[in-house]
Amino acid sequence: MGLFPTGIVDLFEIEKLMKDQFRWVTSWYRPLSRLIFGDQLSNANRQFLSADLKGNILIIGGGDGLDYVDFAKTWRGEYWELSNAMLEKAKTNLQDSKLSFHLGSFSSTTTFDWVLLPFVLDTMSDSDIRELLGKIKKQLKPEGKLILSEFFQTKNFCQKIITKLMIWFFKFTASHPRSNLPNYEQWFRDFGFELVEEKKWRNGWIRSQIWEVSKERPSQ
Ligand SMILES: C[S@@+](CC[C@H](N)C(=O)[O-])C[C@H]1O[C@@H](n2cnc3c(N)ncnc32)[C@H](O)[C@@H]1O
User: What do you get for the CA distance between the two ends of the chain, in Å?
Assistant: First the structure.
């Protein structure tokens, strides 16, 4: 009798592991990012955040959640991760918050005041970006804000090479579908967002941006 339920549980665990393309990268993603970029990626993720963010917060692809530990005690909202290994780390790191944790692609009927997209769009195909932005637009309150932190296209030769290496590395280790960086600004403008604030590092290669729904332009 004991064997059957355990077998089913194991099958679920195996299925979760198989689906978790980021599981090989989970333990060394942060050490590797620190080694190459120091605190810059964390700083980009945290640039416009504080414990005073009011309202419902949506975090998509937040990874291990460490960048939010200082603020999240007062936050409420939803944390969505595609990787079960990352999600489990985030649950531990953010256990003092009132965030709820969800495995899978974002799908919710809640409306949000803030949406955080931290180095996640560069791991997604164009069609997945289109679908995600459509869902976010529906669930973002009219005065809501979207915070993007990302690598941007660069003209610097060394930065171009490192970008290519990172893309190919994640393609190999985590089956990421892209061969280039998305044109984020075009995507956001097409969905009717406008840029309201921006901070750049390394001549604009790494950026953190705040976007809100444009009051002027009709959108998708
Ligand atoms: C490059 S890592 C960045 C992690 C973290 N945001 C950081 O800056 O340290 C991308 C993360 O996004 C997650 N991810 C990718 N696509 C996703 C999706 N559609 N929904 C939720 N999470 C996603 C991956 O599992 C991974 O943890």
Answer: 54
